[in-house]
Automatic annotation (TrEMBL):
Pfam families: Ala_racemase_N. This is Pyridoxal phosphate homeostasis protein. Transmembrane segments: none annotated. The keyword Cell division does not apply. HAMAP family: PLP_homeostasis (MF_02087). GO terms for molecular function: pyridoxal phosphate binding.
């Protein structure tokens, strides 16, 4: 039996109230905002508790941890979880990630898009469900951070649109350190508009973490990736 930690339930309710509040202040319907709980470093037992609390969308940033948790939770079929892969992807992990996740937020170069597409075609194009993907945009000047350079966004989007087993849904970004998150999210909203000149339906904006999700909501975020505000501090990775 799953025993739910009342502190966890309290933090989740508190974050959800803040999401509602920020959405209403922005004149948006809170129902248009998907709250993804980032569970990296935390044990499967925490995900079971979250599921009891009604959480359906969970996020992980490493393939091995994602695959391991999905396998462990496999028996817990009802109700199903939607797994979001939010970390930097490597081409040689694409097949494993695709097998475990429904959404990949971190497409940032053609090679990665092609690897996910090839992983979908391996099982037959018509057999595999489309994989929802977002293009990660780098909001810093540091090429070592994940994400495509903003001036390469449309070219990458056009490439992803040509991948038969991928469904391009929108943009994703992490607010840079040392900058007002609102300014960064305002730029991201502009990149979302630019993306939609190439892919009119790709209107998801994945942005907003523990420290900055209310600002992300006011700039149109549709998918929040919230970890520690809900889960509590992350344990050290063993
Ligand atoms: C860990 C992580 C988050 C969640 O971070 P918190 O600050 O704990 O909310 C969101 N997005 C990405 C890409 C992450 O790696």
């Amino acid at each position: 039996m799953v025993v739910v930690d009342p502190l966890l339930a309290g933090r989740l309710a508190d974050v959800d109230a803040r999401i509602d509040d920020a959405a209403r202040r922005a004149g948006r319907d809170p129902g248009d905002v998907t709250r993804i709980v980032v569970t990296k470093f935390h044990p499967v037992s925490l995900i079971e508790e979250l599921a009891v609390l009604g959480v359906r969308d969970v996020g992980e940033n490493r393939q091995q941890e994602l695959s391991g948790k999905v396998a462990e939770l496999h028996s817990m079929r009802e109700p199903p979880l939607r797994w979001h892969f939010i970390g930097q992807a490597q081409a040689n992990k694409a097949r494993a990630i695709r097998a475990a996740a429904s959404v990949v937020h971190s497409i940032d170069r053609e090679r990665i898009a092609d690897a996910f597409d090839a992983a979908g075609q391996a099982d037959g194009v018509d057999a595999a469900p489309l994989l929802d993907v977002l293009i990660q945009v780098n909001l810093t000047d540091d090429p070592a951070r994940g994400g495509v350079r903003p001036d390469e966004l449309e070219a990458l989007a056009t490439h992803v649109r040509g991948c038969r087993t991928l469904a391009l849904r929108g943009v994703m970004a992490v607010a840079p350190l040392g900058e007002e998150p609102a300014a960064a999210f305002a730029r991201l909203a502009g990149y979302s508009e630019r993306l939609r000149t190439v892919a009119p339906d790709a209107d998801w904006i994945s942005a907003g973490m523990t420290a900055d999700f209310p600002a992300a909501i006011s700039y149109g975020a549709t998918h929040l990736r919230i970890g520690s505000a809900i889960t509590g501090p992350r344990p050290a990775r063993d």
